[in-house]
Amino acid sequence: MPLLALAGLLLASTPRFQALDPAQGPAEGPAQGAAQRVEIARDALRSGRLADALAELDRVLAADPDCLAARRCVAEAPLALTLPAGPERPLAERLVLFGARAKPALRELAATRLAALPRVDSDPVVARSLRSPSATVRAFAAFAARRIEPKAYADALVRRCVVDPVDSVRLEAARALRDAADDALAGRVASALDLPDARVRVFAAGSLAEMGYRSAVSPLATRLAVLAGSHPGGTRAHIRVGSQVAYVQDFNPEIAQGASIADPIINVVEDATVLDVRVGGTSVQTIEAEGPSICRALARLSGETMPEKPSAWLDWWKQNAGRFERP
Q1: Alpha helices (H) in 135-278, listed in sequence order
Q2: Residue 164 carries which DSSP code?
Q3: What is the helix (H) or strand (E) element at residue 101, kind and residue range?
Q4: 17, 47 in Cβ contact below 8 A?
Q5: Bigger pLDDT: 29 or 42?
């Protein structure tokens, strides 16, 4: 057989499945690219290539964890989970440990199966996992709370949004509060903007941006105005620490009808230390981190494209405050 004919035969017999090059990416937009990858994953599942299917689903869910087509594909796939720990431990706990270490597709599957358990079994485990010392366990617990019922874990999720030092945990907690669709939750997170800890304020601003509630624009703008009006140094105060001792310095004699009376002269000795202090400066690094974080949050919530300058956003707020006031 001629060489060209043999090459044509080999090309014609090549399987229809072909993984997309992650570096090159799909030629279409993000939505079309995700749909194409999901179809490739379905083809791979039908032909028994589970590793190829999971690789495509991982790429889709890493970019968009809420892609409905990919989530359905994961739920319908004949996948078995090899759970860690022994069977003597509760199934919900083993699913959490597995999901905390899994890639996006298997993490989605673990959360789906955790959500399918009776709430009496899953709720205590998820609530306890949100307080775990492991950041990956906390992040998965927040992710699983989205799939179960975010409002049921609102208190713990608000705390994770504000005080958790790990970005991935705050991100998952903020997304869970977003899916709860309760505007009051934004107010609870926004209250952290008034706390004295600058790191907490930065965390709260980032979480509000991810939650996506427009009601958070007003407290963010208010905090930005306070931040722009502050300046390092200038505050002055003093303290005086001392003691007083009274003593008889002398007597004024008084003589009347043959009798003398001594009138004492009282004086006071003071011993004191006066400390006069002036604040030489505040944490400029904190201000530099907090200001841009609030500006980025305002950009995401308002849809405006502006530089990360507090003055520019404050001018914008003066003109647009009425759009974000509650009716």
Answers
A1: 135-148, 154-163, 167-179, 183-190, 198-211, 217-229
A2: -
A3: helix 91-101
A4: yes
A5: 42
In sequence order, what are the beta bridge partners of 265? 250
Residue of 163, 133, 169, 127 lying closest to 148 (CA atoms): 127
- Distance (Å, whole) CA 93 – CA 102: 14
pLDDT over 50 (residue 10) = no
For 222, the 3-state DSSP assignment is: helix
* HSE, side-chain direction, 13 A CA sphere, residue 301: 29
* HSE-CB of 30 using CA atoms within 13 angstroms: 7
Per-residue DSSP letter, 22: T
At a CB cut-off of 8 Å and minimum separation 6, what does 38 contact? 56, 57, 60, 67, 69, 70, 73
Tell me the C-alpha distance between 39 and 41, whole Å: 5
Query: Which residues sit opposite 251 in a β-bridge?
Result: 264
DSSP codes, 238-286: EEEEEEEEEEEEEEEEEEETTEEEEEEEEEEEEEEEEEEEE-----HHH
Any idea what the Cα angle at residue 65 is, between residues 172 and 173, rounded to 5°? 10
Question: Which amino acid is it at 75?
Answer: A
Contact residues for 35 (Cβ-Cβ < 8 A; gap 6+)? 69
d(CA 326, CA 224): 20
Q: How far apart are CA 171 and CA 179, in angstroms?
A: 12
For the stretch 110-137, pLDDT in tens is 999 999 999 999 999 999 999 999 999 9
Cα–Cα distances (Å) from 321 to 162, 172, 253, 324, in that order, read 25, 30, 80, 6
CB 182 within 8 A of CB 136: no
